[in-house]
């Protein structure tokens, strides 16, 4: 399983394969990711089989999936790294219910566990 989906699972208290499926469904329906650009426009540039590959359990998720999660669950996701300043992902409508924090080590995501999370 992908560490990104496992990390999101920590916050949502839902199995990571369900989170992966929800995100892939969102991407498959061409919902916008960035500034009203349909998902298919973004993914066609990367790989025409992107969503099919992302549905495979061994495929790692990244920024595209984080952006989709923000839009699906109305979240701000802050990705921290020891190598750069935090990257903030927001839902397109800028209305959000929660803020969660992930640590990116360069090849692994981990939830940042706090007393409140």
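^ structure tokens above, recovered residues below v
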């Amino acid at each position: 399983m992908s560490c990104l989906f496992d990390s999101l699972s920590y916050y949502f208290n839902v199995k990571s394969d369900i989170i992966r499926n929800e995100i892939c469904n969102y991407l498959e329906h061409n919902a916008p990711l960035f500034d009203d650009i349909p998902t298919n426009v973004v993914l066609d540039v990367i790989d025409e089989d992107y969503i099919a590959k992302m549905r495979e359990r061994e495929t790692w998720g990244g920024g595209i999936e984080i952006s989709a999660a923000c839009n699906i669950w109305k979240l701000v996701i802050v990705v921290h790294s020891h190598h750069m300043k935090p990257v903030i992902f927001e839902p397109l409508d800028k209305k959000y219910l929660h803020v969660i924090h992930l640590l990116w080590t360069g090849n692994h995501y981990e939830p940042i566990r706090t007393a409140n999370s």
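Strands lie at 32-34, 37-38, 75-80, 87-89, 98-104, 109-111.
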